[in-house]
Amino acid sequence: MSDSKGSDKSKKNKKKKEKEPDITFFHPELLEIPEDGSPAYLKGYKCKKCGQLDFPKLTPCPSCWGTDFEMVKLSRKGKLYSVTDIYIGQPGMKTPYMFGYIDLPENLRIFAQMEGEIGSFKCDEEVELTTGTIRTNMDGLPVTSYKFTKPSV
Ligand SMILES: [Zn+2]
User: Fold this and answer.
1) How far is the CA of 64 from the centre of ligand 1 (A)?
2) pLDDT for 46-87, tens place per residue?
3) What is the pLDDT of residues 102-145, one digit of tens each?
4) Which of 8, 61, 94, 126 is at a distance of 20 to 30 A from 51, taking alpha carbons?
5) Distance (Å, rounded) from C-alpha 44 to C-alpha 40?
6) Cα 43 to ligand 1 centroid, rounded to whole Å
7) Which residues are within 8 A (CB) of 129 and not within 5 positions of it... i.e. 6 or more apart?
């Protein structure tokens, strides 16, 4: 921000309040949150030449150098392969938080932030995709992306 003067405090505060939440996703090629309210999903990319499925998208295809891909909606549920608690975080991330590796039925291992109580996750348990704040940006506003959490049903 480049406020010329810090004297007009009320104006400055008002300006801050008007800021909209930052809904810039970590990367739009990774996550889709449908506008019709249906559940969010991760986007896998299947190579049209050899059929290899990757998340995130790798270009060219690491197995055949193909460059044509088909987007595939990935399963929303998977099995927690590993989980770790983080107490010394990166800037913009409130500690403690958790990261996990989630194995999806598509034979993909997803690295994601976990949402829930610290210490409440166990390896091999079923987890489900959700969306939420993963960190704050330079302006202190929330950045939304994918996370995994305990299944709702
Ligand atoms: Zn390929």
Assistant:
1) 4
2) 999 999 999 999 999 999 999 999 999 999 999 999 999 999
3) 999 999 999 999 999 999 999 999 999 999 888 888 888 888 88
4) 126
5) 13
6) 17
7) 39, 40, 41, 42, 76, 77, 146, 147, 148
